[in-house]
Structures are given as C-alpha cells and as structure tokens.
Amino acid sequence: MDVKTDAAAKQKVWDLIGKVKVAMMATHAGGDHMHARPMVATQKEFDGVIWFFTDKNSHKVDQVEGDHRVLLTYADWDSQTYVSVDGTASIVEDKGTIDQLWQESLRTWFPKGKDDPNIALIRVDVDNAAYWDSPSSTMLHAYGYVKAALTGERPKAGDVAKVKF
User: Fold this and answer.
1) Rounded Cα–Cα distance for residues 124 and 112 (Å)
2) Is it the case that residue 139 has pLDDT exceeding 90?
3) Which of 9, 97, 142, 157 could be disulfide-bonded to 4 (CB atoms 3.0-4.6 Å)?
C-alpha cells in the first residue's frame, strides 16, 4: 500500500470519517490493557486535528494524560467504509475552543451547556491514517464472490491508502 501525503488524501480521510461519524477511541488503560469507547468528533472542518468533548473527570482523561497515543477506528459495514487513525492526544480546557466547537446536541452529556465546569476537549493530532473505501452494492459483492470462486483471485478492494500527516 502506497503512503500518501497530499491534501486530497488527507481530505478523503476526513470525508470518510464524516460518513461513519462514530469512532472507537482506544487508549492505554495501564499495564498491557487498552480500553475503547465510542466518540464523535464535533468540528466541521479538518486540519489534521480531531476534537472530542469529554467530561474532565472521566477515566479516558486520566488514560490520555498517562499515555498520549490513541487509536481511532471507524467502521461502516453497509457502505464498506473503514478508517484507522493513530495520533497524539492532549486534554484542552480552553473556553474559546469549547465555545467554537460546541453543538447543542452535546447538552445530552453536559446538561449545563457549554459553561459546564466539567467540560474538557480531547485534541487528537493525527499522525497517520489508513482507509478502505470499497464499493458497497450487493451486485458488486456478488461479482467479487464469483470472481474469487472462479479465478482464485481477490476482487479489487476499492480505494485503499495509508496517509501520513
């Protein structure tokens, strides 16, 4: 798999993340243990940083402060879209950034709104990403199955790339 570094490849990563929406964020939970939980990015535009709201008293904050490396995985079986992102996370409590990224739907987790004293942000500076964006139609999958059965060859996987940020 070739490694891409161009702006179009980086934008494709963001576009695919937007399709899937929910990431499983994996952090180091101490020792050899890892923990993953669903998270949704809040920003509309992408510049190599992904932002998540969190409660500053949560375990994931302690885990990020203990080991800044995180893995974000996105998967949507229906569209055959998969993205893996690794990066460096940090905890941000900047009121201006919180105001800028706030969405009213976040009130579900922060009933006091954007002024909730327990709000923090997890900033993930993306280092690398990989994506698999395959055709999702049933006919294309059926064709791939038949091709594999008859020729012993795998069908083309769609658009697959590693992206360095």
Assistant:
1) 25
2) no
3) 9
Question: Could you tell me the two tokens for 43?
Answer: 């920003």
* Alpha carbon 48 to chain centroid, angstroms: 12
For residue 27, which of 65, 64, 74 has the smallest C-alpha distance? 64
Cα distances (angstroms) measured from residue 161 to each of 8, 16, 81, 84: 12, 12, 12, 11
Token representation of residue 123? 């900033």
Q: CA-to-CA distance for 72 and 80, rounded, in angstroms?
A: 17
Q: Which domain holds residue 136?
A: 3-164
Q: How far apart are CA 144 and CA 73, in angstroms?
A: 25
130 token code pair: 């990989």
* Section 103-128 average pLDDT: 97
For residue 47, the domain's CATH number is 2.30.110.10
Instruction: Domain count for the chain, please give it.
Output: 1
* Rounded-to-integer distance, Cα 16 and Cα 132, Å: 9
Contact 16, 131 (CB under 8 A): yes
